Amino acid sequence: MTKSAKTASPKNFENALTELEQVVADMEAGQMPLEQSLTAYQRGMELLKYCQATLRDAQQQVKILEAGSLNDFNAGGGDSSVNE
């Protein structure tokens, strides 16, 4: 992977997670020189922040959807009793 590709923003959560897993595996192997380890660590932190932010956004969307469906469910329950 080229240096510019490594610093590029991931296309999506799945790509970021896959790359992060590879960075961790490479670092755990313990075969990198110090400078390369530091670069890998920095990239890993960037990917981690991206994944955390993406998950946080998804959680917020789920909360909004759940709040909306609870309101719709209650309103829908009232409508079904009127139709009976």
Concise summary:
With 84 residues, the chain is an all-alpha fold. It is 86% helix and 0% strand.
Percent helix:
over 70%
The gross shape turns out to be: elongated
Mean pLDDT: 83
Structural class: mainly alpha
Determine the N-to-C terminus distance.
Answer: 64 Å
Query: What is the overall number of helices?
Result: 3
- What is the gyration radius calculated from CA atoms? 22 Å
Q: What fraction strand?
A: under 5%
Poorly predicted segments: none
Order of helices and strands: HHH
Largest sheet: none
Number of β-strand runs: 0
Helices, strands, pairings?
Blueprint: H1 3-7, H2 13-29, H3 34-83
Helix pairs in contact: 2-3
Task: Report what the structure shows.
This protein is mainly α and 84 residues long. It is built from three helices and no strands. The protein has helices at residues 3-7, 13-29, 34-83. The chain is elongated, with a radius of gyration of 22 Å.
Features:
single chain; 84 residues; mainly alpha; elongated
